[in-house]
Write a structure and sequence with these properties.
It is a single chain. The protein is of the alpha/beta class. The chain has a domain of about 130 residues: Rossmann fold (3-Layer(aba) Sandwich), CATH 3.40.50.300. The chain contains 5 helices and 10 strands. Strands 1, 2, 3, 4, 5, 6, 7, 8, 9 and 10 form a 10-stranded mixed sheet that branches. α1 crosses α5. The longest helix has 14 residues. The relative contact order is 0.25. It binds guanosine-5'-triphosphate. Guanosine-5'-triphosphate binds next to α1. Belongs to the THEP1 NTPase family. Keywords: ATP-binding, Hydrolase, Kinase, Nucleotide-binding, Transferase. This is Nucleoside-triphosphatase DP107_05625. It is an enzyme of class 3 (hydrolase).
Length: about 190
């Protein structure tokens, strides 16, 4: 059984909400995750960037900011690659956990070679991965130069789920059950 579960869908479709709710259900079943999430950062009601947060430790780093004047650009933000490298070095370590949750495999995160290398290894390892993946073939301005996002879409393993508003209410339980089955749990 392929160990990975990929969640994709258009911007704002509910990917983050679905995997966060699935994580809560998996915790209720006793399944612990490592991994990362990428909350937006707002100042004065305006979005100024995104952080990357370790699920295991809660450590966070300023992944992308609108007012940075250095680093690779994604949309109107610039990415602090070294900050992402440092955070994912242990955030993506699966020792002692049941599965890896990645929210998301996206154009900002893949600017970090450490992120790409650790995720590629995780996708080929035994520990299940539950990941939201940015939709394929983004506009050139945001094109992923590593082509890693496309490579994830092209994998022939894993359960793939596309979030739609009509079906998204049932999605957290479906995702939790799929990951629990891959963890060898209920
Ligand atoms: N009512 C309802 N609202 C939802 C549900 N899932 C997501 N939303 C809302 O839809 C908006 C986008 O949800 P996200 O989970 O951030 O969507 P996303 O696909 O991760 O968005 P991006 O990361 O920007 O691509 C938020 O305001 C959520 O509160 C749902 O199941 N029911």
């Amino acid at each position: 059984m392929p160990a990975n579960v990929f969640v994709t869908g258009p911007p704002g479709s509910g990917k983050t909400t679905a995997v966060e709710r699935a994580r809560e259900r998996l915790a209720d079943r006793g399944h612990v995750a490592a991994g990362v999430r990428a909350p937006e950062v707002r100042e004065g009601g305006e979005r100024v960037g995104f952080d990357i947060v370790s699920l295991r430790t809660g450590r966070r780093a300023a992944m992308a900011r609108i007012d940075r004047d250095a680093g690779p650009g994604v949309g109107k933000y610039r990415v602090d690659v070294r900050a992402v490298d440092r955070l994912v070095a242990d955030a993506l370590d699966t020792a002692g956990v049941d599965y890896l949750l990645l929210d998301e495999i996206g154009p900002m995160q893949v600017r970090s070679d450490t992120f790409v290398r650790r995720v590629r290894a995780a996708l080929d390892a035994e520990t299940p991965v539950l990941a939201t993946v940015k939709a394929d073939s983004r506009p050139d301005g945001d094109r992923d130069p590593t082509d890693f996002i496309e490579a994830v879409h092209d994998r022939d393993d894993g359960l793939r789920v596309t979030v739609t508003p009509a079906e998204r209410d049932a999605l957290p339980e479906r995702l939790a059950a799929a990951v629990a089955a891959r963890c060898g749990g209920d």
